[in-house]
Amino acid sequence: MVFRPAQKILPSEITPKSVYLNRRTLLAGSAGAAIGSIMPSVAHSAGENTRVLQKLETRPSEYSNEDLEPTAKEYITSYNNFYEFGTGKEDPARNAHTLTVKPWSIKIDGLVNKPGEYAYEDLVPAVQEDRIYRFRCVEAWSMVVPWVGFQLSEILDKVEPLGSAKYVAFETLVRPEEMPGQSGLFQALEWPYVEGLRLDEAMHPLTLMATGLYGEELPNQNGAPIRLVVPWKYGFKSIKSIVRITLTEQEPPTSWNIAAPREYGFYSNVNPRVDHPRWSQASERIIGGGLFAKRKPTLRFNGYEEEVGDLYAGMDLTKFY
Ligand code: MTE
Fold it and tell me: Which ligand 1 atom sits closest to the C-alpha of 193?
């Protein structure tokens, strides 16, 4: 884990004993992570809550990076950050099968004409878009992900933001009984995980609500059933398993900024010229590129400068990091 100075904590110290014992049984009972990766339509091979991932109906999009080679699905679904399920990269794939993702609804409130508790089915279009995007984590690794989703602007148009709305705040589910990272003595972050965008960023056509990848529903570890994807910002802006969207006048608090304000700002646009206080952002490690793959130079706005550069005209991006 790179986000915080390394801490070595035994699972038995951070998880209630029942969950810990149960997890050990699950691990002992499965042949390990490999099975999950060769059975593409099953979210997890162990446990009772195994979820079959449905194929999704999609259409092509002009915003998709069709020229990029997607990272292998095995990496996208087994190397994750989802602290509600633990801080290790393999923890989400191992633990997230416990999450119940149906039924699901999103509460939309704040400065909108049509607030309410919206069922997943009322927000997600029957036919969604295939969007291949670059994905750059603040930890200086990257992937290429073939998402399935629709523009966040479609949701916002439906609920009609008021003229006074300037920001959009997001919240992840809090459910400690299904999210082992939210229970126990050691809590990596304050819950719920919260994120935010400026309204014009949220309305941008590249800003996606993803419900799938590789043509199927999202595996739990990738933020099922619905998560944000903002391809020109560091991955932590792309909040998972969203249950609430609030339109606000003030800039909303964000989880990593609360945890370490000097290290993680509200904007968090990918920027090779603004280093993290503890490491360089000039280049990135390609996940799935093999042991001897060369690091790749990081692109400004993660390669989306032409599309989004105007949003930040006149802003000092070293100050608004
Ligand atoms: N959302 C929630 N709720 N909890 C998290 O810990 N991690 C973030 C982001 N969204 C995180 C989250 C970080 S740091 C990254 S890099 C991406 O999710 C990882 O997405 P992936 O696992 O699908 O690659």
Answer: 3
CA 256 vs CA 2, 99, 170, 190, 221: distances in Å:
13, 23, 13, 9, 19
Decide: 180 and 19 in contact? Cβ < 8 Å: yes
At 295 the three-state DSSP class reads: coil
- Do 153 and 215 touch, CB atoms closer than 8 A? no
**By C-alpha distance, which of 111, 112, 201 is closest to 152?**
201
| Cβ(106)–Cβ(209) below 8 Å | no
Ligand 1: which of 106, 170, 230, 238 to mutate, most ligand atoms within 8 Å of CB? 238
| pLDDT tens string 20-46 | 334 333 333 333 333 333 334 444 444
Q: DSSP 3-state assignment of 9?
A: coil
8 A C-beta contact, residue 145 and residue 137: no
> Which residue has its alpha carbon closest to ligand 1 atom 9?
236
201 Cβ closer than 6 Å to some ligand 1 atom? no
C-beta of residue 59 within 8 angstroms of C-beta of residue 130: yes
pLDDT at residue 40, rounded to an integer = 40
Residue 54 amino acid letter: Q
Q: Which amino acid is at 128?
A: Q
Atom of ligand 1 nearest to the CA of 172: 3
pTM of the model: 0.87
For the chain, domains (ranges, CATH) are: 15-312 (3.90.420.10)
Output the pLDDT for position 184.
Answer: 84
* Contact 236 CB / ligand 1 (< 6 Å): yes
